[in-house]
Every structure is written in structure tokens, then in C-alpha cells.
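Workshop exercise sheet. Pairs work together: one partner reads the sequence aloud, the other fills in the structure field after running the prediction. Swap roles for the next sheet.
Pair: D.N. / O.F.
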Amino acid sequence: HRNWLVEAVHPPTQARRRAAHLVDLVCLDDDAPGRELSVLWELELGAYVSEPEAGKLRGLADFDPPGHFAAYVNTLRWNATTAADATLFQAPLRAGIHVQNYQLTPLMKALELPRANLFIADDVGLGKTIEAGLVLQELLLRQRVDFVLVVAPASVCLQWQEELYKRFGLQFQVYDRAFVADMRRQRGYKVNPWTTHNRFIISYPLLRRAEYLEPLRLFLSAHAEHGKRRKSLLILDEAHTVAPASGNVVAVDSQITRIAREHLCPRFENRLFLSATPHNGHSNSFMALLELLDPQRFHRASSSRANAEALEAVMVRRLKRDIRRVSRGLFPKREVIALTLDHQGGRWSMQATLHAPRTDDPEATAYFRQHPRPELPLDQPWSLGEDPAPELELARMLAAYEALVAPANKR
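Structure field:
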């Protein structure tokens, strides 16, 4: 049942065959506030009148205990968001993730900027999706964004949708052929599917096609024609995809580069670029990509060295070795283990050899001194086929192998 507010009651008339009152209602529920409805009261099933006094507070007998009232005030304060304090975060507290300290750096830098034009170029595995989700969640809580578009490779569109819903509770609609057909079937052929939702995910191949790009261009241009600048956010995953081709001396814009330059980036107030490989070795291509991010700071004709200070303000770039220096245990070093199988005398034997860590790396040497491995009988080969139960021998070898490859630090 929904809760409705009665605006007007019209008595029965001769036009209505049955003696029924026409009641004008306004919805009070959060999912449909202000929705108007007119019903014939006597013909409605299960309708009832809720007394106004039933929803009022009872008389206050006494003040709350100080501890109870302090908990209530702290709850309001901790859940409050304000644009006046850029260091007060709410997104990490409203996400189903275990946030690492280094993942808060992009959020902090995004809030310090007038517009959240940020290039997150962290290494693979550091959680660029989580960092972008934190920025998105914070902008939504501060009411700085009401329309979001995520452009990603086709292979990760569903992954983006799942991660944003599972980690942050944000529902995104994947824009594809099935979605367009469903919207036209529900709302008519002339409907613009981009007007039906506020959060979309689309792939780069579909964005290149005119039948998908043109409705988006019309949707984004509608606000510009009325002199309005929509509070919007554009997230480009694998942003190096939109960088110009760098085969020649001068970077040549590709089709997706022209689409981003002419139709996407100028229409969005906030922009997040994600890429683990932002620089392809050609400065002119890299500067053209930065120009798409923030044309006020960068120009494709300038050099990256001359814009080092401006780049520091809008780019976050960390490698795993950088995180390992300040937080040991998050990304342990790889250790190479060689397993050799020999067939001699009609049976298989396996010899395991653990390669020693590099002695030319002082950091690695110190790490292995602090985390020594237990001594394992690696000098004796493990044979197959001698015991009457080979599956037991296989189980023993598997247990020894797991002990051999287990990381030194227990996580």
C-alpha cells in the first residue's frame, strides 16, 4: 500500500452511475513523491483512512539521557556532508569495501579541484575502479553530480555494473541493443533512451556507432541550448583508448578521439580518466589526452615537461613498488619456483628448487631476512609409482607444493 494525501473530495454526480466520491490524491512515498491520482473511493479495494493524530509524536515526558542524545548528535554529524570542508569524507563510510589508505588519495585530490577532472593512472591491481567509485559516491552525496556515464571496453561493462552495485549500492544501466529495444517497446519508438535513466555504462565499440551516439549528442545538447550546465560526471576506463594515434610525428585524431573531443568531454562538468598505461611513449599523444581531461590546463602543442606542475595537480600515479615501500604485506614480491619432472626407470620423479632472492636488491634482501622461510626437504626427489597407492603420493606432493609456494606473510 502507498500513503496518499487527500487534496479534494468531489461528491457523487448524475454522470456517475454509482454513488461514489471522486477523491484527488497526492503520493507521499519516497519512490513517487508528488504523483497525482484520482480514484472513486467506494470502488477502491483495501482503501482506508489513516487518522492524522496517529502519526504525531506523543507528549514528551522527560529529556533523553545525555549519552543517548550525544549518540544521536554524533550520528547526524558523521552522516552530514558539506562542500565547505574538502577533508570530510563520507563515501568510504557508505561503501561495502575495505578501503586502503592509498585509495583515499584520488578522492582527496578530486575534492580539492574546482571540478573533479582527475587522471587516475595507478598500476594494475591497485583498485582504480574502487578509487573512481569513491569519487563518484562522494560527488553524489555532495549533490555535485546527477548524471553519470561510464565508457569502458566491452569486456568489462558488466563487471563495472556489478562492482558499482555490489560495492557502492549504485545501479547503472548498460546501454546496448537490448536496452534500446526494451525502452522503445515500453515508451514508444520516438523515445530517447538516454532520458530514461541517470547512470549509464556503454562500451567504446557502441559509442563509435551513429545510432547510439546521436541520441546521446541530442540529450547532452538539450541542456546546453537552454543555457544550463548539467551536473554530470564522465568516467573513461582505459582512457588511453581515446588518445590520438601516434604513428606519425604529429598525433592524428582517431574516430573515438574526435567523438570524445567534440561530443563527450565538453558536455560533462566532471571527468575521470582511468588507465594503467597513460603514456604511450609519444608526448604529443599524451598531451592531447590531457587536453581532453582539462583544456584549461593543457594544450596538445605544449610539452609534458613544461606542464609538470599542472600535471601533478590532476594526476595520481602509483606503482606497486611505491605502495610496498610504505605498506609492507599488501603486495608481496614474486618468488620464482621451478618444478622439474624426470622420467627414469619407468617412473616419474619431481625435483623442486626455490630460486634465491636477488642479492642486488637491498629492499628484497632485507625483506627476506625479516621473513625467513622454513626449511623444506628440497634435496630429495619425490617419486611417483613406487607406493601401492599413487593417489596418496600425489596428495603428499600437493601438500608439499602448497607449503613451498605459500607466502611468507600470512594474509
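Discussion prompt: Residues 337-405 form one domain. What would you look at next?
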